[in-house]
């Protein structure tokens, strides 16, 4: 019997980006170029207000066209880095035309028919796709990347997590609002009233990401719970969470208190994390080595440090940071496409 033919990873693919002019769209273009993704044709798509502008890719200006069903004809991969409304309307059109939609919005993540994928953790899930694959929330990704390597050491029972999320998690408007407030403070002018966030972010922290639900949890916090369970395929994992917005341009951070059975020692955790692809350990308290958002910005790895035993129990403390625009969004989406190609699925 003839062996299975290896997929051609160099054959050019037709790639479209919906939301190419946004914060994640811009990083997607950079990631595709940096990773030498085999792009034969690039289609930059957006809503009507951005049509007529251009984006830069491989030294050339690519005109931005309207995101509409006909724009997906012949596309291999369509990355959605736009609003959930566009993804809900147009992702099925991609599948209908034989392409694969890789969506960064919240629209499809909890659909039981749609895989929710971090390739280092559950890459095989892409084989179950029906034309749409979801990429997790930018907060979920570094959190789950810190948990996944530890599953081989003990059954994960409960994680208590507080996230510290950067302004760019709210896109370009979030960064511009923070910058405008900081400039006003530096100039001694009144701070403009907040529009993107629920309170002033500059020189402040805001204990709310997105909106509150009737149960007093935010929509962001509930995403963290359910997405983590789906990615780890562990519906019984207990996750208690609080999400906070902080005045940082790029990079989401999380402090995690983890309970497992048996208990995981700090030494075991360091070794498991250091061996896991996409994770880098920065943990040397004697020399003040620990990761910060500034360390992760522009990088691909999730950085983990402050690994220590809880002072009152055998639970484990961790501190994790990741670039929310790269591994939290654009990079993970491109890695999903690469996973599909490696498996001969596109």
Instruction: Summarize the biggest pleated sheet.
Output: 7 strands, mixed
How do the SSEs run, as a string of H and E?
A: EHEEEEHEHEHEHHEEHEHEEH
Structural class by helix and strand composition = alpha/beta
- Write down the overall mean pLDDT: 96
3D architecture notes:
- This protein is globular.
- Helix 1 (23-34) crosses helix 9 and helix 4 (140-147) runs parallel beside helix 6 (219-232).
- With 346 residues, it is α/β, with parallel strands linked by helices.
- 28% of the residues lie in helices and 24% in strands.
- Helix 3 links the parallel strand 6 (100-103) and strand 7.
- The strands form two sheets. It has a seven-stranded mixed beta sheet, with helices on both faces. The protein has a six-stranded mixed beta sheet with strand order 9-8-10-13-12-11.
- The longest helix has 17 residues, at 171-187.
- The protein has helices spanning 23-34, 84-96, 119-122, 140-147, 171-187, 219-232, 266-274, 293-296, 326-342; strands at 13-18, 39-46, 54-57, 60-66, 77-80, 100-103, 132-134, 155-165, 238-245, 252-261, 279-281, 302-309, 316-322.
- It has nine helices and 13 strands.
- The mean pLDDT is 96.
């Amino acid at each position: 019997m003839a062996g299975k033919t290896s997929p051609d990873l160099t054959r050019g693919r037709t790639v479209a980006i919906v939301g190419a002019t946004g914060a994640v769209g811009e990083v997607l273009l950079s990631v595709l170029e940096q990773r030498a993704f085999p792009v034969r044709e690039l289609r930059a798509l957006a809503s009507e207000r951005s049509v007529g502008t251009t984006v830069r890719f491989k030294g050339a200006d690519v005109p931005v066209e309207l995101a509409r069903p006909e724009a997906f004809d012949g596309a291999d991969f369509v990355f959605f880095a736009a609003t959930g409304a566009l993804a809900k309307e147009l992702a099925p059109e991609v599948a209908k035309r034989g392409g694969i939609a890789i969506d960064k919005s919240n629209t499809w993540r909890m659909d039981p028919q749609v895989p929710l994928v971090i390739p280092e953790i559950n890459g095989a899930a892409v084989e179950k796709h029906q034309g749409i694959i979801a990429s997790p929330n930018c907060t979920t990704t570094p959190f789950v990347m810190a948990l996944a390597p530890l599953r081989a050491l003990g059954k994960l029972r409960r994680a208590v997590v507080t996230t510290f999320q950067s302004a760019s998690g709210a896109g370009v408007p979030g960064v511009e609002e923070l910058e405008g407030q900081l400039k006003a403070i530096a100039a001694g002018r009144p701070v403009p009233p907040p529009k993107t966030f629920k309170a002033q972010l500059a020189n402040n922290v805001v204990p709310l990401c997105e909106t509150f639900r009737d149960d007093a949890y935010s929509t962001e916090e509930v995403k963290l719970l359910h997405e983590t369970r789906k990615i780890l395929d562990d519906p019984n994992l207990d996750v208690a969470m609080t999400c906070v917005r902080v005045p940082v341009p790029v990079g989401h951070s999380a402090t995690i208190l983890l309970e497992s059975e048996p208990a995981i020692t700090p030494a075991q955790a360091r070794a498991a994390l250091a061996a896991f692809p996409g994770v880098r350990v920065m943990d040397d308290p004697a020399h003040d080595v620990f990761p910060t958002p500034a360390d992760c910005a522009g990088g691909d790895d999730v950085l983990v440090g402050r690994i220590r035993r809880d002072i009152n129990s055998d639970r484990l403390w961790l501190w994790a940071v990741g670039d929310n625009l790269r591994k939290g969004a654009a990079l993970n989406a491109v890695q999903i496409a690469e996973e599909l190609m490696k498996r001969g699925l596109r």
